[in-house]
Amino acid sequence: MSLFVSQKPLQTWLSEYATSHQNPTNKRIHWLCVPVIFLCIVALLYAISPYVFAIVAVGVLWFYARLSLGLFALMAAFMAICWAIVHFLAVDIWFWVAVFVVAWIGQFIGHKIEGAKPSFLEDLQFLLIGPAWVACDIWRRFTQN
């Protein structure tokens, strides 16, 4: 396995993720819940320690950079927005825990509606592909208009 290039190209990851996200209701739920979960993880890691957040952020961004430099830039920008929200929004850690749990419940409801199990049950890397799938869809919609 190369340290610099993913074994699967980005489009393969996104296509595989999309197979269990065909239902329009499930897609809308994921469009909302995936970024919220990402934000909550940033908040929880930052609450543990800004250094812990930084170390995990570097690893996550490395994963994205191996797939695509464009995706890396997109996800770095999203991560920076999440960090800014967390840094400047003074809420208790339990707020983030509650939002995290509610968002995951939403995800599982979406998969119940879809009738397909979550992709990450096949491969944990799909936990990082979910945010990329949403970001790429937003980018695609934004650049087509």
TrEMBL record:
Q: Which domain of life is it from?
A: Bacteria
Q: Which UniProt keywords apply?
A: Membrane, Transmembrane, Transmembrane helix
Pfam families, A to Z:
Mpo1-like
Transmembrane annotation, as ranges: 29-62, 69-87, 93-110
Annotated GO biological process: sphingoid catabolic process
Classification via InterPro entries: Mpo1-like (IPR009305)
One cellular component (GO) term of this entry:
membrane
Q: What name does the UniProt record give this protein?
A: Uncharacterized membrane protein YGL010W
